[in-house]
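so ive been stuck on this for like two days lol. basically i have the seq below and the ligand is pyridoxal-5'-phosphate, smiles is in there too. i just want the complex predicted, nothing fancy, no docking runs or whatever. if the output looks off dont worry ill sanity check it later, just need somthing to start from for the group meeting slides
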Amino acid sequence: MNTEFSMIPPAKPIIGQEERDAVDRVLASGMVAQGPEVEAFEQEFSGALAGGREVVAVNSGTSGQHLGMLALGLSSGDEVIVPSFTFAATANTVAVSGGTPVFVDVDPETFTLDPAMIDAAVTERTVGIQPVHLYGHPAAMDEIMAIAAKHDLWVFEDAAQAHGATWQGSQVGTFGQAGMFSLYPTKNMTSGEGGMVSCGTAETARQVRLLRNQGMEKQYANEVAGYNNRMTDIHAAIGRVQLGKLAGWTETRRENAAFFDAHLRGVVTPVVRDGAQHVYHQYTIRIEGASAQERDAFATALREEHRVGCGVYYPTPVHRLETFRTEVDLPVTEQLAREVLSLPVHPSITDQDRERIVAAVNTVAKAGA
Ligand SMILES: *Cc1c(COP(=O)(O)O)cnc(C)c1O
């Protein structure tokens, strides 16, 4: 193992003095549960990232997905079309609401739901489609919205990894009837833990607010059986500071990605579709034709010989996890699960790190060719 260099981490939350000061301010106020900071965070987030739509803050992205789909009416026996090439939360949230995730294949270039595959998966029990803007590349929302309209389905956007990404000039999370942004520490911005639900109508927003807080809008006037999925003012205070820094961080992610695009050799670099603004939550390359073992060996060489951290998102397609084990043929998903490898693209990497990452990948790719 090479110990000459320090390891470049695959992801790194950036928490500065401003975040600490904001938390201190909330702690000193003595009011730490959901309150004015959460409300301000919702207003600011709506303006910056949700095209002015009403957004509702919750305690995680997963909660946001769960409550958002319940608000759209998801119930027992309903089917929701989802990609399998995603984080398990996408399907978990359908399942815990009593629904059945129906897995379809993705586009091999953008890693997002393949609109051409959706029609064949629609049955009389289908109620919605949940595209994922994976790695920060927007899904083909114009085509997906048209298919949904044709079959009278709702669309819930999983924008967990795509804060600020746009498709044909509009921000992700503003196309579907609802959408979710995650604020987990490794995402493009964080509140510690947290999520935001973007809502297409005032009624959807009201339902999410009710479900977030025991079914109450007015205290002790419980209208529905709800949860406690509230965000605290401590988390909102962190999120507000991070929101102010997001645009600069995204710019740095995009510059890092452009550098990799220009200099990597022997691997397949990410495709950006016309009309898409990619925010590079991950910079994901493909080791074309690799088996999972060969890709894993590539990753091990990067880490151990070159001290370049990297990650595989996700090694097991969701339809093959023990929880969902489904007999369905998803050849593109299977191929991507064998070939993908994500490199550090986060705003903390230095110019020197970028050079090291490029040299490392090109060396390992050449040795394997
Ligand atoms: C992170 C993530 C989630 C869940 O968000 P949490 O805030 O961790 O609950 C859902 N979907 C995708 C694609 C994610 O990356």
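The pocket of pyridoxal-5'-phosphate is lined by residues 60-62, 86-87, 89-90, 132, 158, 160-161, 182, 184, 195 (CB under 6 Å). The chain has a mean pLDDT of 97.
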